[in-house]
């Protein structure tokens, strides 16, 4: 899990989420071999510096079996 808090500009949150996931993609096979894991996920959480929520965060949270309501998201 990699967390990022960029300044909010047009499409900056989605772009940063994609960058964070790509950054670790090359490590996924090595991590599987090293740990013997059969499942491996690369996740990112991106929240804007002024509190904007990246829609891709919802997928990352579901992977972790977490579900945040809109009220809880606004507290982050």
Fold and architecture overview:
Helices cover 47% and strands 8% of the residues. It has 76 residues and is mostly helical. It has one domain (2-75). The protein is flat and about 40 Å long. The chain starts with a strand and ends with a helix.
List the keywords.
76 residues, mainly alpha, 47% helix, 8% strand
Could you name the ranges where pLDDT drops below 50 across 5 or more consecutive residues?
none
**DSSP, total strands:** 2
Question: What spatial order of strands do you see in the largest sheet?
Answer: 1-2
User: What is the overall silhouette?
Assistant: flat
Report the order of strands and helices.
EHHEHH
Q: Structural class, from helix and strand content?
A: mainly alpha
> Between the first and last Cα atoms, what is the distance in angstroms?
16 Å
Helix-residue proportion: 40-55%
Rg of Cα set: 14 Å
List the helices and strands and how they pair.
Blueprint: E1 2-4, H1 12-25, H2 28-35, E2 44-46, H3 56-63, H4 70-75
Parallel strand pairs: 1-2
Task: Offer a quick outline of the entry.
This protein has helices at residues 12-25, 28-35, 56-63, 70-75, and strands at 2-4, 44-46.
């Amino acid at each position: 899990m990699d967390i990022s808090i960029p300044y909010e500009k047009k499409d900056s949150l989605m772009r940063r989420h994609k960058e964070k996931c790509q950054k670790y993609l090359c490590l996924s096979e090595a991590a599987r071999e090293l740990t013997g894991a059969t499942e491996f996920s690369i996740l990112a959480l991106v929240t804007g510096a002024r509190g904007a929520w990246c829609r891709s965060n919802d997928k990352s949270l579901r992977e972790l079996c977490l579900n945040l309501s809109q009220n809880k998201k606004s507290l982050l």
